[in-house]
Amino acid sequence: MARPSRCRRVCAEPDCRGFVPQSEESAGEIVLTVDEYEAIRLIDYEGQTHKQCAVQMEISRTTVTEIYERARFKISDSLVNGKVLSISGGHYRICRGDPEHGCGRSCRWASAAEQLISQKGETVMRIAVTYESGLVFQHFGHTKQMKIYDVDNGQVTAEQVMDTNGSGHGALAGFLSGLKVDALICGGIGTGAQEALAQAGIKLYGGVTGNADEAVKALFAGSLNYNADVHCDHHGHEHHGQHEHGHCGEDKHGCAGKGGKCSE
Asked: What is the pTM of this model?
């Protein structure tokens, strides 16, 4: 039986998901995994040694060398033979940059979070929305992303999508509190999470569906349709509709906690 590969720590998923050659016909496609991308980013772009990269990704130096060499060959194959280069998949988990779950270093996620925290003015109201593909995601505890809005005098002055790394119901309240969020718009949410949000001083607008941007606008227009008594009894199960994508089956969510393991 093959030994399961150790989960690779990645600061953030790539902003660009692929490259297409400028040619009339494609010679095929190369898939660069996210952990391979991370090795290239750390070694070739940031100039880290293989040892430093291994510490950052929490894997052995031998594994880093294997990943790096495989990634370099894939990139060369794409360039030389004119193949489409796509970036997806792999055994990895996202580092959120916080002391409990993050790498404890100055990483990409931490820089984004620090910038978001520092730019909040005294008159700004910060609103978080459980987010997926432009819509209000319908299960608070399973949301992979939050869209953060800064609103001043009824106008959205800044917005940014942040990865949650599947923090879970309780940890998400701390995640939002750390970002200085004042209010949350979401779909279903459990009682425990509601209590955690209340303790953090975050106003809850649950039971909301539809477009995330429009929901924020409706909140400040006084026309947001929300349920003050919202609850969610589907813990451990999948919702229908938006939640049929099998989030828990994705590779990156098979890696739970520090030093987690992913199956091949």
From this structure: 0.51
Nearest to 190 by CA among 207, 175, 202, 203: 207
CA distance 162 to 152: 20
Which residues touch 108 (CB under 8 Å, ≥6 apart)? 11, 12, 97
Please give the Cα distance from 68 to 229 (Å, whole number): 51
Whether residue 128 contacts residue 183, with contact meaning beta carbons closer than 8 Å, is answered with yes
pLDDT in tens, 112-158: 666 666 667 777 899 999 999 899 999 888 888 889 999 888 888 88
Tokens of 142: 């399973």
Cα(29)–Cα(48) distance, integer angstroms: 28
pLDDT tens, residue by residue, 25-42: 778 999 999 999 999 999
- For the chain, give the secondary structure using H, E and C: CCCCCECEEECCCCCCCEECCCCCCCCCEEEECHHHHHHHHHHHHCCCCHHHHHHHHCCCHHHHHHHHHHHHHHHHHHHHHCCEEEECCCCEEECCCCCCCCCCCCCHHHHHHHHHHHCCCCCCEEEEEEEECCEECCEHHHCCEEEEEEEECCEEEEEEEEECCCCCHHHHHHHHHHCCCCEEECCECCHHHHHHHHHCCCEEECCCCCEHHHHHHHHHHCCCCCCCCCCCCCCCCCCCHHHCCCHHHCHHHHCCCCCCECCC
Q: Are 167 and 175 in contact (CB under 8 A)?
A: yes
CA nearest 88: which of 20, 10, 36? 36
